[in-house]
Specification:
The protein is built from eight helices and no strands. Helix 2 packs across helix 3 and helix 4 packs parallel to helix 6.
């Protein structure tokens, strides 16, 4: 709810509290009056009527207390809500631009973007410089192949774990997810450079081609360790988990992949 709605709600609760407080005050006054004139009421109205009046004023006083307390609680809550909204709106009005942090990269989208951007570059370069276009095509295909290889490794590991019912090793899939994200970040850097560069400029062509080669090289280094990691998982499963050294080897490769992810990457 916005501030205007909360303010209107607060005003209505103020009125309700006023009514509740009025009921309480009137009931209290009546109760006091009955108490003061107890003797007179008993003498002139009788003990029975006095009892009725006393009971009625007591009930009315209890109702007044409940009404006053209830409306006061509601009033305080609505006041707190209004104050909270005022703080939020004040913070929003003084805040700078909101920076959006991109989350997990979509490998399919990254691959499709690379294909689209690569085709666009090659369509411009090929007519003017077929040799340069061929070299760039090789470099870009190498990058695409690393993404395809990553998909293959992920599928192999999944099938391996599924066929062995190795739920205890499902965290190894998370390791490969980390590898995939690293590869995607490399490719995104390449895409960013292609986006701001021109296929009509030789210097830009050289930069993009070099970046693509660096991207493929870094990805392949990580993929080689990934392959060895999957082999270690396979050997551990083949040993039926009896070999302590087997699981240790899995951990070694897991740590190696983590280190490569942290220290690797392209920064052209």
């Amino acid at each position: 709810m916005n501030k205007d709605v909360l303010l209107d709600k607060f005003k209505k609760n103020v009125v309700r509290f006023g009514i509740g407080a009025t009921i309480f005050v009137v009931a209290l006054i009546l109760k006091i009056v009955v108490g003061i004139f107890t003797d007179i009421l008993v003498v002139y109205a009788g003990i029975r009527l006095f009892g009725v009046l006393s009971a009625l004023t007591t009930i009315l006083l209890l109702v007044g207390i409940a009404a006053c307390a209830g409306t006061l609680a509601i009033l305080l809550i609505s006041r707190a809500e209004l104050r909270k909204q005022e703080v939020i709106e004040s913070a929003d009005s003084n805040a700078g631009p909101v920076l959006k942090v991109k989350g997990k990269l979509d490998p399919v989208q990254i691959r499709n973007s690379l294909i689209t951007e690569g085709d666009k570059w090659l369509s411009v370069v090929s007519p003017a410089n077929p040799k340069e276009a061929a070299e760039m095509d090789v470099a870009l295909k190498s990058v695409k192949e690393t993404m395809a290889q990553m998909d293959d490794y992920q599928l192999r590991l999944k099938n391996l774990l599924d066929s062995n019912g190795a739920d205890a090793l499902r965290d190894t899939e998370e390791v490969l997810d980390g590898v995939e994200q690293h590869i995607c970040r490399n490719v995104r850097k390449l895409l960013n450079i292609m986006t701001v560069s021109s296929p009509n400029t030789q210097n830009d062509l050289d930069v993009v081609e070099l970046t693509a080669k660096n991207c493929a090289d870094d990805n392949n280094r990580l993929l080689q360790t990934t392959k060895e990691f999957i082999v270690a998982v396979t050997e551990f499963l083949n040993s039926q988990g009896d070999s302590g050294s087997g699981i240790n080897e899995v951990e070694v490769y897991k740590n190696a992949l983590t280190t490569q992810i942290e220290e690797g990457g392209i920064y052209s």
